[in-house]
Amino acid sequence: QGLTGDEEPLAREFSDSRRRLQRLMPDAKETLARLKSTYKIGLLTNGAPDLQREKIATSGLGSFFDAVAVSGEHLIGKPNPEIFHILLNELQVEPKNSVMVGNSLARDILGAQAAGISRTVWIQVPGSEEFAEVTPDHTILGLHELPPFLLRLTNP
Fold first, then answer.
1. Among the four 2, 15, 83, 148, which has the fewest Cβ within 10 Å?
2. Which residues does residue 139 pair with via DSSP β-bridges, in sequence order?
């Protein structure tokens, strides 16, 4: 069912606001650039394919990812372990050799653990903390903490 004439301006305003208010996490580009030469990097995101693909394109981060899985393209999403396996297959990486980094305990961390991913890292975004019956292997407060953590994992 399409939008009525009264709903179209509201939908347009929502779409425009979403684009205007989109913000990157602090240190996103710097962290991805630093990790890109050493690791395969995948992006797993829930949502409608057109919206998610647009967000990736406008973020300027697309070139950092070796593979991207958008839930709407596969009709399954996080925390379903199958979507994690789809991304890992695209990356050609085994779950036991991977690390999931995400800001949602219920979707990212729980799903990664169910998929058998060896390590989970929760980005605890101040002001948007979430509580779920799951414990990540590690918690960071910002992306700048990720490279030293990964270095310690590979060089104990």
1. 2
2. 122
